């Protein structure tokens, strides 16, 4: 499927494969935890280079992975060929993507920071789940204190331009609830020491569902 909306992030597409290949074991463990216990049909939003694919449990019948950046989608298709479960990669944006039947789960990993309108996207994802279906999310989120100030500065200047429209100071957990999801389990994880001057040090890991 070809996206009606063009996504072209050449710099990000060049650096992200290297970043993804050198993720810390802590972040990879969070990815595994985010996917643990999934089954049925899964929609993965913003698949990147397919980093999650190797971690899906065999109880998953199919993954439909949305990745609109064509260079990343090409790499994701290569990763899909090695995945332990069937994976179909589409280069549609999540806003353009349409499905014939609802999904059992939606997976968001480091993507809700980069969509143009997270509230609208989350409402769309809510509508594409069956009743009782789960949203699994692993997202870096807005922090308090000096890091929150750093995030706001980064978001207003260079960060989104260089890193695929990534916005670090988003209240993603509030947006999830606002879209109609009920959060069953959630926590935050610090992936760098408190003194490290990076805007993406705090991650939210959670499970929510469509009532």
TrEMBL record:
InterPro entries named in the record: SAM-dependent_MTases_sf, Thiol_S-MT
Record bears the keyword Transferase: yes
Q: Where are the transmembrane segments?
A: none
One MF term in GO for this entry? methyltransferase activity
**Alphabetical UniProt keywords:** Methyltransferase, Transferase
User: Per the UniProt entry, what is one GO biological process?
Assistant: methylation
Q: Coiled-coil region(s) at which residues?
A: none
- Please tell me whether the keyword Transferase is annotated for this protein: yes
Looking up PANTHER family in the UniProt record yields: METHYLTRANSFERASE LIKE 7A, METHYLTRANSFERASE LIKE 7B
State the name under which the record lists this protein.
Answer: SAM-dependent methyltransferase
């Amino acid at each position: 499927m070809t996206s009606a909306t063009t996504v072209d992030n050449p710099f990000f597409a060049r650096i992200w494969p290297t970043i993804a290949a050198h993720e810390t074991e802590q972040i990879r463990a969070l990815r595994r935890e985010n996917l643990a216990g999934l089954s049925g049909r899964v929609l993965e939003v913003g698949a990147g280079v397919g980093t999650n694919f190797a971690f899906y449990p065999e109880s998953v019948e199919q993954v439909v992975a949305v990745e609109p950046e064509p260079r990343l989608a090409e790499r994701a298709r290569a990763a899909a060929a090695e995945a332990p479960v069937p994976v179909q990669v589409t280069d549609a944006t999540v806003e353009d993507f349409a499905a014939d039947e609802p999904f059992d789960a939606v997976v968001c990993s480091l993507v809700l920071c980069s969509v143009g309108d997270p509230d609208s996207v989350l409402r769309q994802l809510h509508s594409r789940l069956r009743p009782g279906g789960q949203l699994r999310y692993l997202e870096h989120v807005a922090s308090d204190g000096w890091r929150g100030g750093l995030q706001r500065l980064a978001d207003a200047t260079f960060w989104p331009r260089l890193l695929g429209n990534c916005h670090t100071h988003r209240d993603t957990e509030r947006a999830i609830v606002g879209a109609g999801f009920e959060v069953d389990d959630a926590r935050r994880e610090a992936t760098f020491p408190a003194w490290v001057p990076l805007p993406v040090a705090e991650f939210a890991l959670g499970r929510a569902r469509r009532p």
